[in-house]
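From the shared-data thread, chain only:
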Amino acid sequence: MRTMIAVATLLCAATVHARPLTNPVQVQSTMKADHPLHWKPLKDQLDAWVFTDNFGFTVGNASGPLFEYTHGNFSLESTRCELASTSKWPLAMMFVGLVADGTIESLDSKANEYVSWWTKNTSDPKSNITLRHLLSFTSGFGDGVPGQENGTETCMDAPEK
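Structure, as tokens:
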């Protein structure tokens, strides 16, 4: 599960500046891991990534890094990156993992089943908002524009759904 979140983070971070290489060149990569064979499939995928020349990637847990990877001219210690919206994919992957392992019944579960302070008052349309609504920006929060692109109906528009 944590590996999935980390992979999703890499893909998000890498796509921020994603652009196909016009003249692909062989770029140096490095890997540090306690069990290199365990991480070989991930390393092979990272080595094959063609959309970004220079990137870094780390998977870890509370005890520290388990796998560190750099590609091209990237340093995990000193390279700074501009990132935007990079939490969306890891968050979505986390929720899918929570559904897969049974921690959450479904993405269609109501937010108030898992967030204690969320309203359960059935006269309040917010009580019908599901995790899927929140993850897909169709909860209807805000000025009514977010989640309504291209005529998308939100939970606030049709609370009975």
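The chain has four helices and three strands.
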